[in-house]
Design goal:
The chain has 4 helices and 6 strands. By secondary structure, it is an alpha+beta fold. Strands 1, 2, 3, 4, 5 and 6 form a 6-stranded antiparallel beta sheet that branches. GO terms for molecular function: endonuclease activity; hydrolase activity; nucleic acid binding; RNA nuclease activity.
């Protein structure tokens, strides 16, 4: 049996459009930009936050007070919104395992993009806001179960 090339293309297009709802895509992408950091270290906070253009709207200087990078791949993070997490109510899920994190805290900042951060490494359970199985908000890191 021979499969026509156009049938393969059609199947690939259908597979690519299945899964993530369109209204979640921008929120998920923002979450990844702000919190996915498999290779971010505690000495790279200033550079990462500046390069990713992470800001805090509604503040006088535009500098975000705290930003946390999760040192894991996006698939390991996504499972927290399903079998890898425990529901906490209000669409929040606490991870069943600890994740290595880099937490960047604002030290000084005249105005964005001149914000200065100090990074700290830790390993914690994380709490994520999820929408239909997709992480869209980092809520907190918890030291103890």
């Amino acid at each position: 049996m021979e499969i026509h090339p156009s049938a393969v293309i059609l199947l690939l297009l259908l597979a690519a459009s299945y899964g993530q709802p369109d209204d979640i895509k921008p929120r998920y992408q923002k979450f990844l930009n702000q919190h996915l950091g498999p290779h971010v270290n505690e000495h790279a906070c200033d550079r990462e936050i500046r390069n990713r253009d992470i800001t805090a709207s509604g503040t006088a200087n535009g500098c975000k007070e705290v930003n946390t990078f999760i040192q894991a791949n996006k698939n390991d993070i996504k499972v927290v919104c399903g079998k890898g997490g425990t529901p906490q109510g209000n669409n929040l899920f606490k991870s069943n395992q600890r994740f290595p994190l880099v937490t960047c805290k604002l030290q000084s900042g005249q105005r964005h993009p001149n914000c200065k951060y100090r990074g700290n490494k830790s390993t914690r359970y994380i709490v994520l806001g999820c929408d239909r199985g997709w992480p869209v908000h980092y809520d907190e890191g918890i030291i103890n179960a």
